Amino acid sequence: MSGLALHTAAQDLLFREARTANTFTAEPVTEDQVRAIYDLVKYAPTAYNQSPLRVVLVRSDEARERLVDLMDEGNRRKTAAAPLIAILAADNEFHEELPALLPHFPQAKDLLFAERPVREESAFLNATLQAAYFILGVRAAGLAAGPMTGFDFAGVQKELLDGDHTPLMIVNIGRPGPDAWYPRSPRLAYDEVVTTA
Question: How would you list the strands of the sheet with 144-148, edge to edge?
Fold first, then answer.
């Protein structure tokens, strides 16, 4: 018995068999697929339900070209070839949505998050948590994700975002192509990670 309620096939799809894709087929990622991914991952937990993750879908050739120029050299070719690219960013003005997202505590907007440095720290942590769920959502859609942090962060913010959004990662999305996977690297064992206090 595995101790998990999730069916083995779903465990494999989301975790064991899932890999970071380095090549993709030309099959497009549809708007319906992206909406289905979001409708699943929007339930990720965040502090005060702040939900600071923002997703910029890079669809135009012009935006793709600007982004590819900002990627580290080793990431340019696979980003240029991905059917869809998502820029995952933290919205540092997330507090403006709190009255709607936290109706039982609407004063949280001004009481807890009035200061920009506090918002930036909280947005970074919670949007990163949401980004992990986003990757799982891509996998749940039967697609491969290629998350990367090898890019010019300041350049992406300037060229494709704004001063209120901090880039976290770029995610290439699509069906895996030929030779999409590098060999699986080792993982730490349970006893190397989990201790008891």
Answer: 53-58, 84-91, 165-174, 144-148
